[in-house]
Amino acid sequence: MPQLLSGAHLARHHHQHVLHLAGQGYFLTWIDREMEHVLDALWSSSPSRAFALHEQMSELIMNALGRHIPQVRVHACAPLPPWSPRLDQLLLPWDVRQLPGGHLNRSYAALTFHPWQGGCAVCSLNQNGRYIGAERPCGRQQTNVRKPA
Asked: What phi and psi, each to the nearest 5 degrees, are found at residue 4?
């Protein structure tokens, strides 16, 4: 499937920041709302082109994570920090919100620890170890923590 947008065009809508709060670092990467609206409109007119754009946007987010935090690529995991009002306030200047329950208010965004601090053990989606040995909300299995070489 051909690319919908050039990499340079899409890159103008991609943002990333390393943030700090109370001695803890975070990496935030996201695609702005304008591209989310473009994609939403495209689903009704051309689902195949919308899917191609969705793939481009997802790949851009994942590649940014892997470039800035190599362990994300090695372990195939970008643990989500626990929600806090202070962290949520830190994200406000970029119109990104971390919602209680662990989700972001953006379709194409990721927030994780910087530097990397480990996988499932520090991920807020793994509350109180209740996903140990079972499928997690992120779709990962505990026993599959590394991609094959």
From this structure: -80, -40
- DSSP secondary-structure letter at 7? H
Q: What is the pTM of this model?
A: 0.78
Does 64 have pLDDT greater than 70? Answer: yes
Report DSSP letters for 37-75, one per residue. HHHHHHHHH-HHHHHHHHHHHHHHHHHHHHHH-HHHHHH
Provide the CA 73 distance to its chain's centre, in angstroms. Answer: 13
Cα–Cα dist 100/121, whole Å: 19
Q: 110 pairs with which residues across the strands?
A: 29
Whether the predicted pLDDT of 74 surpasses 50? yes
Identity of residue 116? W
Domain edges within the chain: 7-129
